[in-house]
Amino acid sequence: MNIGLAIKSIRKKLGIPQHELAEKCLISQSALSLIENGVKTPSQKTIAKVCQVLEIPEAIIYLVAMQETDVSESKRGVYKLVYPSLMSLALQIVNTEHLNLLEPKMLVKEPA
Q1: Sequence-separated (6 or more) residues with CB below 8 Å from residue 69
Q2: How confident is the model at residue 102 (pLDDT cuts 50, 70, 90)?
Q3: In the chain, fewer beta carbons within 10 Å around the N or the C end?
Q4: Residue 22 and residue 76 in contact, taking contact as beta carbons nearer than 8 Å
Q5: Is residue 88 classed as helix, strand or coil in its secondary structure?
Q6: Predicted pLDDT of residue 29
Q7: CA 72, CA 80: separation in Å to the nearest integer?
Q8: Cα torsion for 7, 90, 84, 65, to the nearest 10°?
Q9: How far apart are the first and last CA of the chain?
Q10: Degrees, nearest 5: CA angle 80-56-4
Q11: How far apart are CA 106 and CA 30, in angstroms?
């Protein structure tokens, strides 16, 4: 499970600069950088705060963070069949339309 990469992916999808997310989560940018790069594991409190700021359910972070190695070998066939669809649905929840915490100029529009 790679929570840091999940946070980074969602943050980038939403077009939020790292320094802004860190500030809104009341952590330093360097701490967020360490988390996103897998050097430091975020606490449950930090994960909850990130989700609150991003206005997403915590389950989305955990779903995006899931990796094939997190699944037992006997279940990997099912994982490979189901996970792409679950990931797609999770990322549909993560969009710029539900965020009111950023200035309109900072929102990243998806290509048509």
Answers
A1: none
A2: very low
A3: C
A4: no
A5: helix
A6: 96
A7: 12
A8: 30
A9: 32
A10: 60
A11: 22
Residue 95 DSSP class: -
pLDDT for 32 equals: 97
The overall average pLDDT reported for the chain is 84
H-only helix segments in 1-112: 3-13, 18-24, 29-36, 44-54, 58-65, 76-93
pTM of the model: 0.77
Could you report the per-residue pLDDT of 53-62, keeping only the tens digit for each? 998 889 889 9
**Domains of the chain, start order:** 3-100 (1.10.260.40)
Provide the greatest CA pair distance for the chain.
47
The closest alpha carbon to 50, from 40, 61, 41, 39, belongs to 61
**Residue 24, C-beta contacts closer than 8 angstroms, at least 6 positions apart:** 53, 101
* Cβ-contact 14, 53 below 8 angstroms: no
Q: Which residues neighbour 48 within 8 Å (Cβ) at sequence distance 6 or greater?
A: 58
Q: What are phi and psi of 11, to 5 degrees?
A: -60, -45
